Amino acid sequence: MKTHFKAPLLGAAAASLLTAPVQASTVDETVNAIFANSTGWFVSFIFSPFPGTSFPWIVAWLVVAATIFTFYFGLIQARGFKHAIQLVKGDYSDPDDAGEVSHFQALATALSGTVGLGNIAGVAVAVGIGGPGATFWMILAGLMGMASKFTECTLGVKYRNEFPNGTVSGGPMYYITKGFEERGLKGGKPLAILFAIFCIFGAFGGGNMFQANQAHAQLTNVLGDYPGYITGIIFAAIVFAVIAGGLKSIAKVTEKVVPFMGVLYVITALIILLINFDQIGWAFGQIFEGAFTGLGVAGGLAGALIQGFKRAAFSNEAGVGSAAIAHSAVKTKEPVTEGYVSLLEPFIDTVVICTMTALVIIITGQLMVDPETGLYMVGENGAIQTASGNTGVALTSAAFSATFGWFRYVLALAVILFAFSTMLSWSYYGLKAWTFLFGEGKAKELTFKVIFCLFVIVGAAASLGPVIDFSDASIFAMAVVNIIGLYFLMPIVKRELDSYVSRLKSGEIKKFK
Fold first, then answer.
1. 99: phi > 0 → left, psi -120 to 50 → alpha, else beta; which?
2. Which of 25, 228, 310, 500 is deepest in the core (most CB within 10 A)?
3. Distance CA 453, CA 455 (A)
4. pLDDT 10s digits, 11-43
5. Helix axes 442-461, 210-223, angle to 10 degrees
6. Which among 167, 165, 166, 185 is positioned nearest to 176, based on CA atoms?
7. 3-class SS at 108?
8. Cα–Cα distance between 111 and 344 in angstroms, integer?
9. What is the pTM of this model?
């Protein structure tokens, strides 16, 4: 009887294992179809271009806001840069101030959410389509985005909730609600709820599943093919172990991981640039010439400008409101101080790291040039032909590997660390949006953290294209809501800035170091 009982059981188990990939594929396709049919219109709307152009309106929305904030706050990027560094060093940090993390930890946590595949793959896409000139517009957009970060992060601290146990909740959900009430404006609560919903969707998808998916892809490039759920389970366990400890635990990890991976990537790029020192001047010449002439790439000047602005907006998330959630937890009683610190984020993310990636791609000769015309050779797909035939992250890998053959291993490590740190940051962003909607409490927080980690496994194991597209669209839908709030609340930020600067000049605000 026992033998007779076990045989069918084993047969059924074997059959289920054999049909699992087919079933998984069927589930994948079903989810894809459902999402594509029900949310395709939303994705198309968020990323749709202006009529007759290829310029997405959402990018213009971010760039216009950054330009307005730049002039409204009197070029705060330049005026506040030195003080921002002083604050990160802890020169003005009072250990008795309310909050959970230091200025440096808040910056590292926010950076871990933005520094990632946008700096590696996104830049390669921009340069591959828009040519070297795209780099110039990318830098300009990054510099202007510093003012957007300043505005949203100042408000994040000013209107945060501080709880008796020392924890803090802040971000656009709170400053839109409280700020609108303070100014006697209606509609703050519905806008805040909408932002929180978009933030949760963005956290599950673009800040989670996409990251796990790309990390698994990089691991298979190095280790060979194996089931994605293995990567997912390992990542989910590590992520849960970190996020279970709250923001302080996340900050302790990101303050070590982010500088390590950033420095590793930048040093490798610097070595390549030093080896090819004689070509740096030529490369910058290509960047400036391409910015205003297009150098014969698809779309010419407009193509370079569109790609540069697009990749900068997608890379540093200035105006999206996500960073304001992380910066809200800083230890300070002066909201403007974290506005200053957040200035450094787009600068590091876009101006430094993205520019270095672009320079390495240009200098290592990855972009094919027609020897007769001196113009870049453009393929049928509208992109510049590359020496390696690669695009995206593979093009960046090829550019770095042209000098260091072992760089693909470093890049794989960087992508994995970028993905890991991004998941940590977005778990916190999603959690704060979740508690805004459903209330504070350990049980509610644990529920979100478990769901988040389950999505890590799904992301690594599946290829849910439309699901991730919808999540990415949700992240930029956050920017629509957030920037509306910033326009109404920027006079409050101006008042805070003027007060802080006058007290700083008078000596009322003193250094602690």
1. left
2. 310
3. 5
4. 444 444 344 444 555 555 665 676 667 677 888
5. 40
6. 185
7. helix
8. 9
9. 0.80
| Residue 384, helix vs strand vs coil | strand
Alpha carbon distance 25, 27 (integer Å)? 5
**How is residue 206 annotated by DSSP?**
I
User: What's the rounded Cα separation, in Å, for the pair 459 and 471?
Assistant: 12
CA 225 to centroid of chain Cα atoms: 28
Between CA 131 and CA 308 the distance in angstroms is 9
At residue 271, what is the residue type?
Answer: I
Nearest to 236 by CA among 423, 111, 417: 423
Residues 299-356 pLDDT 10s: 555 666 777 777 776 677 788 888 888 888 777 788 898 888 888 888 888 888 888 8
Of 485, 438, 479, the residue nearest 176 (C-alpha) = 485
Tokens representing 215 are 């990390």
Element (H, E) at 168: strand 168-169
What is the full DSSP assignment across 457-474?
HHHHH---HHHHHHHHHH
The two structure tokens encoding residue 112: 């871990």
Cβ(362)–Cβ(127) under 8 Å?
A: yes
Which sign does the torsion angle of CA 129, 114, 345, 48 carry? Answer: positive
What is the rounded CA–CA span in Å between residue 212 and residue 84?
Answer: 33
Nearest to 421 by CA among 265, 257, 203: 257
Q: Which of 493, 157, 198, 432 is nearest to 317 (CA)?
A: 198
Per DSSP, the residues of 239-305 read HHHHHTTHHHHHHHHHHHHHHHHHHHHHHHHHHHHHHTGGGHHHHHHHHHHHHHHGGG-TTHHHHHH
HSE-up of residue 74 (Cα within 13 Å, Cβ side): 7
Which residues have CB under 8 Å from 438's CB, separation 6+?
Answer: 444
Q: Which of 394, 368, 370 is nearest to 383 (CA)?
A: 368
Whole-angstrom distance, CA of residue 319 vs CA of residue 65: 8
Q: List the one residue out of 365, 415, 422 whose CA is nearest residue 393.
A: 415
Please tell me the distance from the alpha carbon of residue 22 to that of residue 258, in angstroms, as a whole number. Answer: 39
Helix, coil or strand: residue 224? coil
What's the gap between Cα 198 and its chain centre?
15
